[in-house]
Every structure is written in structure tokens, then in C-alpha cells.
Amino acid sequence: MIEKNYQPADIEHRMARIWEESGAFKAGRPERKDAAPFTIVIPPPNVTGSLHMGHALNNTLQDILCRFERMRGRDVLWQPGTDHAGIATQMVVERQLMERQEPGRRDMGRAKFLERVWQWKAESGGTIVNQLKRLGASCDWSRERFTMDEGLSRAVVKVFVELHRDGLIYKDKRLVNWDPKLLTAISDLEVQQVEVRGHLWYLRYPIEGRSFSPEDPKSFIVVATTRPETMLGDTAVAVHPDDERYADLVGQHVILPLVGRRIPIVADDYSDPEKGSGAVKVTPAHDFNDFEIGKRHGLPQISVLDQEGSLSLVGNEDYLRGLPMGADEFAAEFDKIERFAARKKIVARLEEFGFLERIEPNTHMVPHGDRSGVVIEPYLTDQWYVDAKTLAQPAIAAVRSGETTFVPKNWEKTYFEWMENIQPWCISRQLWWGHQIPAWYGPDGKVFVAETEEEAVGHALGYYVEQEVITPEQGHDMAVDPAKREGFITRDEDVLDTWFSSALWPFSTLGWPDDTPEVARYYPTNTLVTGFDIIFFWVARMMMMGLHFMKEAPFSTVYIHRLVRDEKGAKMSKSKGNVIDPLGVIDEYGADALRFALTREAAQGHDIRLSPHLVETNRNFATKFWNACRFAEMNECVKPDGFDPKGAKETLNRWIAHETSRVTREVTETIEDHRFNDAAGAIYRFVWNVFCDWYLELAKPVLMGEEGAAKAETRAMIAWTRDEILKLLHPFMPFITEELWAVTAKRDGLLVLASWPRKSGVTGEQLAAIATAGPVVDPIIPPVIAALDADEFSDPAAEAEIGWVVDLVTAMRSVKAEMNIPPSTLTPLVIAGASDETRDRAQRWNDTIKRLARLSDISFADHPPEGAVQLLVRGEAVALPLKGVIDLAAERTRLEKELGKADADIKRVDAKLANEKFVANAPEELVEEEKEKRAAAAERRAKILEAIERLKKAS
């Protein structure tokens, strides 16, 4: 028995428990051992994380695909797991220690600290997994993995060692994003660009051989900089080769103010003659662009900052080399001064000696650490790198060949741009939580990379015996007695970038490097669903690693979704106070309503605008369908065993079978094409409009009539249609559909494992057999289905008749609304020049049309009467005689005023969009909002024009 009121909270917990206890989501079910596999790997959320709207969208779309393919008979593996999130997790535990006034990480020591992190992970690390279950994610939770579990750690070590052996991992001294607070290199994804109001300092650099005077422009060259404190590490001044102002200076030298270093003036295209003075200082150790200039011109790299962002001058051989007398005193005076304090002191000293020409206000973007909040330093340091350029070549080729495709297709251009300009990938992090790099250093710094310490010891002993650093006897003794080799080699303290282990996710989660049955069956995966912001950080790296180690691309399709924004189109952020908590939304409206709201808005290539009202609208949809199922139950609508909708006799019932077949095809094809919003929109319209508003409404007279064949058939058809809806709607709204499936009839099994509606009655078992008859690839499935569905149910005659009734009533309602006719006012209808077929339809459905369209009478005439509003319904003229019902002239005046308002709205928006400055500077969401306003006004204008035209004909 269906409860009177739809209460999501009562349903969702119970359904989740039933699914889990039944093992409904498990891959490798015995009955599907011969079915085609379908695999999705979850983008592993941070173990520290909690569910946000991006997660909700991403996992809803994945779940739709998994539930859809599971119902189509596939052996579905949705592989779940979490990421150890190195820096984020370490910060959580360190903050916890500080709040509890316990010893800090360094006081505690590495081993004890890592124990505390694992303890925290055991106690709190499963939060987001439980939240994903609340959303309805149908992952195979029995296979949950963690990027630092034993198996994945073994995979990480093997990959590192093999790539190092092949020369694709190496150590190098390069610039990295350095966080002076967290004391580690960080990835570009962890850098946040913040607009800062700062200054542009114009500095005078004396030209060598000329007597410097602030009043003599020929004695110096002016450089503009936002970072005067790094000038101490300058090794050149660069000008554009075509800049005539400096043509005679290229090849000469300047003397670096305050420092006295002699540095060259070089010609380089990077210098922009239109910016500042056209000359720029080059500090290769403190700027990424300068680093590249330095490489092009063979310039020294002089680092003048330490890891904490303070000046490091005393004992800095690179800095002091070749400096004149007095450099030691200057170094001592400025050493260990914090960078921003040093900036003020250096600027003051430059001004004192006449080297400061002027200061201008300057607003610019400054990189900040997204977790520490401090300004990030480009820092020159030894780190481990992956030769990403070499690994990228097969990954580029895989997308170019179509082995992997992006949806939408335009993201392939972004992928290619990144991959073709890829830089070495810095994979080392100065943290404790993470995969410690499997590299050991000998007494002379010689590096030994191995999967285990024992293996590294063996390599080291062999090397040092060969080099005659130790004797063979010593080597033997150290090999057999660990105590004798204590301190002989030391392990690298750094850990690997979190993205390194995540790059192996599609195959490491399946048990690689072991030759497991799961690897053989479920790799490569099918569809990856992810956000556009990590195409480079994650998608590209999975492509590189998958192709290198597995010799196949890790997925055939990459579906890219956009951001979830607030209802005004603004990006959600805590600072703006516009963050919508998905768990709060689920508490208020239910998970199904949130899922359906997100899916209906998830158009390819567009951001999603979400508001509580939108979710409420979709909760109302669920309530409407719930009530429709209760209506069916109260009217004893049950599907008899063996019921075949193709055998229906009643036109209305054949019509709903025709429409159900049509929506089944539409939903199936749009999910296959990853047009999730179109699929959700199709089932929404069918349930709300076709099933609830029309079919059940048109069936009411039959249900309220006498018992007989028509009533029995209608009851059966309502139950059959309801069941087909439950199947079609299940991937989108799993909780309510599973509940209604259970309570509407006695059934064998759960809806989640039921067969997807087959337009020709193809069973899941038949589909599975067909799918495995050839190569197990996705593209074989849709053509097979298409071939088998050639005889799908279709009844054009039933559609023509019932469709005519629906269109006629809809047109009447629309015209009355346009003309401001109160709904209670009954009006006559004249059908002009009707065909015999239309006359018969009108007579058969006379009472129904009059009731639904609020008509006093339906008559026939050769021509429309005067003073009637005319319109076409399926090619035939119908007329509403409104003379005497409304003042036609006054109504026309009102509509013309409305037309004027619409024109004014369009003109106002066009003026904004024609303003190049507005389009260039306004936030993307604001420009999109204006375009939407124009589209709405244009649509309103078109409808008003139609109404005015009808009134003209009636006058």
C-alpha cells in the first residue's frame, strides 16, 4: 500500500540498507558472468573531504550511467575509493595536534606522526563515502580502495622504479611553486590566483662604463618590477629585439644597484615594449618566465630566498660570487629578513642612492597557496620529475585516433593544447603523509632507486665494491648483518605528489601489478566522468600511465561536466556566502529531488545554476508521480501476468503504448549520447504531461464507468505504463522508484536489477549474449539494440487521434490565457471546414474536450465566424468566437503595450552585449545572464506577435 504522503527521509535510509544487504551493486554477479562488462572508476574524493555540489553532480551522472547499464544487462563495476590527499590530510592532523596542545609533527617524529594520521583516517576518513551513499551512489562498495592501501602502494613503487629505470623519472633543479608556510612544493591546482592592489617600481640600473646620475637618462636603463626584493638575484636585463630604444645597448652590461653585480643586457621576445619601460629584470631563480629566459641565454640562477621566504645571503656562494668589496657587509645587513619586510628596506635603500625613479599603483594577480593562504614563491630546488613530454605522445595519439573521445568534443582542443606544451612534472613533495619516494642515497650522494630497502642496499653495496670504496669483505659483512650497514644509505624523505598515485587509479584499483582476473575483465574502463578543471592534472596523467603500463587507453569516453553555480550564475564560495550544502538539500527535499534537479540542468558545455527552488520543483515532480501511482492503486490498476500492450484495443491505451515506446527510445538514446539533461527532460515531460496530465485524465471516465473489457484493459495499461516509467526514471531518481516498485505489486527482485525497457521486448540476457558475441566495446551495443528494436510498438492512428485531442485542448487553454479570459468562462468552439475524420474525433471526444478546454459548445462550419480568433490544430482551422466575450480592441492595445515592453527589453540587452568593454570585463556568468534575458524577451515577443495576428484576423 502506497503511503498517503511522499516522505523521502522515510524511504531513502531503508532503500540504501536493502541495496547494501542484497549486494545489488556488486560486480561479477554469477548470473552476469557472460555479460559485457561496463566499468567506471570514481574520481577518488579526498579522504578529508565532505560532499559538495561538484561531488553531487559528478556522482549523480556516474550513477545514472551505472544504473542504466546494469539494467541493460551489463556486468557493471563502479569502482569506489578515496585519495589520501597528502597536504590536506597532513594539515588536518597537524591542526588537530595544535588544538589539543599536543607535540607538533617535528617534535613527534615521522613514525609517530604517521601513526596519528592513520588513526585519524580510521576514525574520520569514511565521512564522504557515507555521504555518497546518501546520494544513492551504486558503487560496488565491497571493492573500496584507498590510494595508500597496501596494493596501491605496491603499484606506486613499481611504477616509480620502472619509470626511473627507463629514464622517464629523474632528479633536477628547477623552479617549483613553493609554499613558504607549509615548506613544500605544490601543484598548479593548489595555487590560487588572487587579485592584489600593489605597486610597480621603476628602477634605474646603471649602464657599465657610464658615470651614473639620476638626472642623466643615458647613464642608466629603467626596469619595471612588482618584486624589487628579488632584484638581488638578477642576472640580466632583457629588452625586445625590435625595440629601437635599446638596440645599441644589447650586448652591453649594467651594474646591479646595491649589489654591484655585472649583468648583461640581452634581447628576448618575452620583453613587451608596450609594458612598463619595455625593459625587464631577469631573475631566473625567482620567476618562471625568467627561468626560461635564463635557459635561452645561458644565465646563472641565483636564489636569494630560503624555504621560509626570507633573504638568504650570508654564505650564499651563488649570490656572493664575483661581487665587489663590501658585499659581505650588505649580505649580513639584509640576511634573514622576511621577504616583504626586505622589499620595503630595499626600496628605501634604492631611493636613498637615486636608483628609484618612480612608483605606480598596480593591480595584478598574485599566486597564493589555496590551503596556507600565503603568497607562493617560484623557488629553485632539487626535485623529482617525470618526463611528461615523452609519456604524452601516446596519450595525444590515442585521442587523435579516437581510441578515447571527449564529450563535449571541444574539450579535446584544451587537452591537446596542454599536452603539446607539457612541461616536466614535479612529483616530489616535502611532506610526511604520502608515498615515500623509493630512493636511497649513499655516502657520496649517489642515488639508488629500488622497490625495497633490501634491494637498494644490494645495489649500493655492489656499486661501492666496484668503485673500491669498500672491500668485497666489507660488502659481504654489511649484506648479512644489517647492524653493520646502519646509516650506510638513507632514504629520500620526500613523498610523491598525490596525483602520481591517482594517475594509476584505473588499473591499480583492479589489483595491478598482479595479474588479477579483475584487471583482465574490467580494464580498460568505459566512461570517465569528471570536471574540466582536472583534465590536465588527472585525466591526462591517467592516459599517460595507462598507455605506458597497460598498452591501452584507460577509458574510451571522457565526459566533462561544468561547474555548479548559484541561481544567479555566481561561482559558489564560502566568502560570498552562497554555498549550497547538498546534505542540507537532501535533508529538506530528498536525494532524488537534488539528483533530478542537477541532471535536468546538466547540458553539455554549460554551467549549472542551482537554487533551492529548483530542487523543490523536482521534489514536487516526485510528489506528483507518487500521487499518480496512488491514484492507480486506488483504482485497482494491476498488470496481469503475460499482459502485452501491443494487444490493446482501446485507442487511448494504444496511444499511451505508442508514447511510452517513443520516450523509451528518446531516454535510451540521450543517455547513450551523454545528453543527461535531455534524457531527464524527456522523462520529466512524459511523466508530468503525457502520463499524469493527459493519460490519467483521459482515462478517468473509463475508470469511473462500468466494469468491462475497456476498463480492465485500461487498468492493466496504466499499471504497465507506470512500471515502464519506474524503469526509465530509476537511474535518475533511484530511491522513490525502488520504493514504488516494491509496494505497487508483488515482484521478484529489485528494480535496480530489473531489465531496462526493451522497445522490442529484448531481455537483459539476450542483450548480454549479443554484446559478448563480438569484441567487448561500447559502440557495438546501440546498433544491436537498434536492429532488434526495428519492430518497436507504434500506432500512428492512435497518436493522430489522441494527439489531436491534446493539441486542441492545449491550444484552447493557451489562447484563453493570452486573451486574459478567466478560466471559469465557457466559450464556444467552431471547427471550420473539418474533415470527416476530424468530425468523428470531435464527436467521440466531445464531452472530454468540452470539460478540459472549458467550452460551452463544439460546432462545425464551412468558414470561421466573424469576430473569432483562429488557429491551426494539426493543419485544420478552429475558431473561438470571442466577440462579446472580450473587448478585442482593448485586448489588442494591451498586447501592443506588452510588445513594446519586450522590444525595450531586447534593445536594452543588445546595447549591453554590443559594448565590447562590458563583454570583455564582466564575469562570464553575468554575460550569460544577459543573453538568457534576451532569449526570454525574444520568445515572449514572438508569442505576443502571434496573439496580435490572431486578433487582427478576428477584427
TrEMBL record:
Group of enzyme by EC: ligase
PROSITE patterns according to UniProt: AA_TRNA_LIGASE_I (PS00178)
Keyword Ligase: yes
Name of the protein this chain belongs to: Valine--tRNA ligase
UniProt KW keywords: Aminoacyl-tRNA synthetase, ATP-binding, Coiled coil, Cytoplasm, Ligase, Nucleotide-binding, Protein biosynthesis
Record field: catalytic activity: tRNA(Val) + L-valine + ATP = L-valyl-tRNA(Val) + AMP + diphosphate
Record family assignment: Belongs to the class-I aminoacyl-tRNA synthetase family. ValS type 1 subfamily.
Function recorded in the entry: Catalyzes the attachment of valine to tRNA(Val). As ValRS can inadvertently accommodate and process structurally similar amino acids such as threonine, to avoid such errors, it has a 'posttransfer' editing activity that hydrolyzes mischarged Thr-tRNA(Val) in a tRNA-dependent manner.
Database matches in InterPro entries: aa-tRNA-synth_I_CS, aa-tRNA-synth_Ia, Anticodon_Ia_Val, M/V/L/I-tRNA-synth_anticd-bd, Rossmann-like_a/b/a_fold, tRNA-bd_arm, tRNAsynth_Ia_anticodon-bd, Val-tRNA_synth_C_sf
Record-annotated Valyl-tRNA synthetase tRNA-binding arm domain positions: 887-952
Protein's cellular compartments: Cytoplasm
Motif 'KMSKS' region: positions: 571-575
